[in-house]
Write a structure and sequence with these properties.
Elements lengths: L4 E6 L3 H11 L7 E6 L17 E5 H9 L3 H7 L2 E3 L1 E6 L10 E4 L9 E5 H13 L3 E4 L12 E4 L6 H6 L3 E17 L6 E7 L2 E7 L5 E7 L1 H9 L2 H11 L7 E17 L3 E2 L2 E3 L5 E2 L7 H21 L7 H30 L3 H15 L3 H11 L3
Parallel strand pairs: 1-2, 1-9, 2-8, 5-11, 9-16
Antiparallel strand pairs: 3-7, 4-7, 5-6, 10-13, 10-14, 11-12, 12-13, 14-17, 15-16
Length: 384
């Protein structure tokens, strides 16, 4: 007789919902009682609404995971913004120089490198999948104690209640940066290209949107971010035009504005008996490479795979030896990416003429590195 297990997932963000959908559509779904718990209300999405402020760069590898979860067809049918090229350069350089990092989808024989997608749309599509599965969805439900379950999965973000209640410690580094986000109209077409200009105070990321606008993430000093928030739209447009080096001509604010402080954080343990952390509950990184959502999706897929194999082998999904397989598979990769993003941010925000020259030399070297460059890009894009 097959055992029956209760899996409680705290957090209905992209990572938690993807994990729930993978379990609910897996071969051992009949052996599971799955409940998703979130303190907020059910997220809304309407195709008639403007593009939401919160978007994520979804790599091709993550598209495959969302497709396995049953959500990608609905996402793609709604609205997505494919990007076909990426260009990265230093403020002391130009975007067309030999030391600017550039790569295109055609190099890897794929139609695009990834997609810019609204977080709310991804959640909406995943919830539509779960509505047709045997999954309990509990919104507006505050978690004050660990739910009664064979396995509690913390997918509840950087301030994870599950992590806190489990007594799992974290290591945190506060960046002296705040990220400003908004949408902009551009004088020149974005040409389906994601761009990033490294400035002395932090990087400016420019992501192409399907309607011709761009979404920006400007990592700068807290003082500059607050000044930008307080600025008129016209003044902010001028500031961002200068910060972008006019790569897309004049920029005009054409959307809401928001800001959030930046930090790197990781849980010292991902698992305990009956507990597992995924996504930002386990690790939070600098947004400069847009890898946060992709790392969380990889966590969700790996934990689902580990649990599926364990249940098929007659093992309890909450046993620590089972959960350690997930931790071993993901913790090292996540920490490597976290430290790499921290180091890259520090390298480009260091005010040193010598380091500035070394940065440019290193970028030129990377462009000529052949297999190393190809492998690095494939890892970042989740490509095999």
């Amino acid at each position: 007789m097959t055992s029956h297990y209760r899996i409680a997932i705290v957090g209905a963000g992209i990572t938690g919902l993807t994990f729930a959908a993978l379990l609910a559509r897996g071969r051992n779904a009949d052996a599971l009682e799955i409940v998703v718990i979130d303190g907020a209300g059910r997220p809304d999405f309407s195709i008639g609404d403007d593009i939401a402020l919160r978007v994520s760069a979804i790599a091709n590898g993550s598209v495959e995971l969302l497709d396995a979860a049953g959500a990608w067809p609905a996402i793609a049918a709604a609205r997505v913004s494919p990007f076909e090229a990426m260009r990265v350069w230093d403020e002391n350089d130009s975007p067309d120089s030999a030391s600017a990092v550039h790569f295109a989808a055609a190099e890897f024989a794929v139609p695009q490198l990834g997609f810019i997608v609204e977080n709310a749309l991804i959640q909406h599509a995943l919830l539509a999948v779960l509505d047709n599965c045997d999954v309990q969805l509990r919104f507006n439900s505050t978690v004050d104690s660990l739910p009664d379950a064979d396995l509690v999965v913390g997918a509840d973000g950087v301030r994870s209640v599950v992590r806190k209640l489990s007594g799992i410690e974290t290591s945190k580094r506060q960046y002296e940066q705040t990220a400003l986000v908004t949408h902009l109209k551009t004088e020149r077409k974005h040409a389906a290209t994601a761009r990033q200009r490294f400035l002395r105070d932090g990087p400016l990321g420019m992501l192409p949107l399907a309607d011709g606008r761009i979404s920006i993430v400007w990592s700068t000093t807290p003082e500059m971010a607050q000044q930008a928030l307080a600025s008129s739209d016209a003044e902010l447009g001028r500031k961002l035009t200068v910060a972008s080096g006019r790569v897309l001509g004049e920029l005009t604010v054409a959307g809401p504005k928001g800001a959030f402080s930046l930090s790197a954080q990781y849980a010292k343990e991902y698992v305990q008996p009956g507990i597992a952390l995924i996504g930002d509950a386990a690790h939070a990184i600098h947004p400069l490479a847009g890898q946060g959502a992709n790392l969380g999706l990889q966590d969700a897929a790996e934990l689902a795979r580990v649990l599926d194999a364990a249940i098929s082998a007659g093992q309890h999904p909450g046993d620590r030896p089972v959960l350690r397989r997930y931790e071993r598979a993901r913790k090292g990769a996540n920490l490597t990416m976290l430290h790499f993003m921290t180091g890259l941010n520090s390298l480009f925000t260091t005010n040193s003429a010598v380091l500035g020259e070394l940065r440019l030399y290193g970028m030129r070297l990377f462009n000529r590195s052949g297999p190393v460059r190809e492998r690095a890009v494939k890892v970042a894009l989740g490509m095999k």
